[in-house]
Amino acid sequence: MKILLINGPNLNLLGKREKNIYGDLSFDGYFETLKNNYPQHELNYYQSNIEGEIVNKIHEFGFDHDGIIINAGAYTHTSVAIRDAIAGVTTPVVEVHISNILTRESFRHKSIIGPVCVGSIMGFGLDSYRLGIESFHQG
Q: Is 97 marked active-site?
């Protein structure tokens, strides 16, 4: 199985920012754990703070991978472009969030990308990504 994990803006600061919400582990460290736990899969990782670069990556991997897991960060709530990119590819996409966005500020309660994803996982910390990988085993 070939799966791409995409992180959006500010997620490059995991382990450094708002540790009470996001924890103290960097994503690079966690990604190594995922690769070790899923050696049978080809896992790729991409992070960008730039909306258009995320769109380009979805286009690049969205026709030949078995799944995409995306934490679009703040773009979850604002990006019609990322939503349209997800809708335009054939690879199934799972939306993930480290925190439960429904328990946070009201502007975070609506996901623009969620309706074009096959599912959403939130609130399980970094384990949300593992649950995203597991979801592709169910399909």
A: yes
* pLDDT 10s digits, 74-92: 999 999 999 999 999 999 9
Q: Residue 137: helix, strand or coil by DSSP?
A: helix
In angstroms, the CA 50 to CA 52 distance is: 6
Residue of 30, 46, 65, 97 marked catalytic: 97
What is the pLDDT, as a whole number, of residue 139? 57
Per-residue b/e over 42-57, b at no fewer than 16 CB within 10 Å?
ebbbbbbbebeebbeb
Task: Quote the CA–CA distance of 11 and 74 in Å, as a whole number.
Answer: 10
Catalytic residue among 22, 45, 46, 75: 22
Interatomic CA distance for residues 134 and 49, integer angstroms: 26
C-alpha distances (whole Å) from 46 to each of 1, 21, 56, 57, 90 are: 17, 22, 11, 8, 19
